[in-house]
Amino acid sequence: MDDDNNRSLDFKEFLKGVNDYGVMIEKEDAMELFRKFDRDGSGTIDFDEFLISLRPPMSNTRKEVIMQAFRKLDKTGDEVITIEDLRRVYNAKYHPKYQNGEWTEDQVFRTFLDSFDSPYDKDGKVTKEEFLNYYAGVSASIDIDVYFVIMMKNAWKLN
User: Fold this and answer.
1) Do residues 81 and 70 touch, judged by C-beta distance below 8 A?
2) Domain 8-54 has CATH 3.10.180.10
3) With a cut of 70, which residues of the chain have pLDDT below it?
4) Is 45:15 a contact under the CB 8 Å cutoff?
5) d(CA 125, CA 55)
6) pLDDT (tens digit, 9 = 90+) per residue, 98-124?
């Protein structure tokens, strides 16, 4: 659908793509659908917005184990994970880029946070919603709740 290969779809590309795939839809309905995909209201749908809109909802079991991991990181209890929270949980001095002098401790922590942070607002703070959204993407590739829970418990050393 991305005819100009810019990794996003404008409405014209979206409409053409929908028609190319044989979805018969009125232009007004296509515009409404386009707006649902265009989560940031930019007038284009980027790849992340496209994937977020297509993935299935997570079960409560998955959401609960994700929140256990979030609470483990959120040491201040303010429902936002920051560098200060990470200082209380992890020792950045073991990171290879810290050890070779390439990064500071703050850079190690910030890179860690950036992996969970919203792609639209990399502010060094990870909210519950951003953390859940990140793991919704991971969750979409794991079919069975039990496997997802085991993966999370092992990754975050949860009980």
Assistant:
1) yes
2) no
3) none
4) no
5) 24
6) 999 999 999 999 999 999 988 777 899
* Predicted TM-score (pTM) of this structure: 0.75
Would you kindly state where each structural domain of the chain is located, as residue ranges? 8-54, 60-156
Q: Phi and psi at residue 73, in whole multiples of 5°?
A: -80, -35
Pair of tokens at residue 41:
């209201």
String of DSSP letters for 55-91: SPPPPHHHHHHHHHHHHHH-TT-SSEE-HHHHHTT--
With b for 16 or more beta-carbon neighbours within 10 A and e for fewer, the 70-105 pattern comes to beebbeeeeebbbbebbeeeeebeebeebeeeebeb
Q: Kindly give, in sequence order, each residue whose CB lies less than 8 Å from that of residue 113, ignoring residues fewer than 6 positions away.
A: 81, 82, 83, 86, 124, 125, 126
- Please say whether the dihedral angle defined by the alpha carbons of residues 30, 35, 38 and 39, taken in this order, is positive or negative: negative
What is the residue whose two structure tokens read 């850079």? Answer: 107
DSSP 8-state symbol, 26 = -
H-only helix segments in the chain: 11-20, 27-37, 47-54, 60-73, 83-87, 96-99, 105-116, 128-139, 145-156
CATH no., domain 60-156: 1.10.238.10
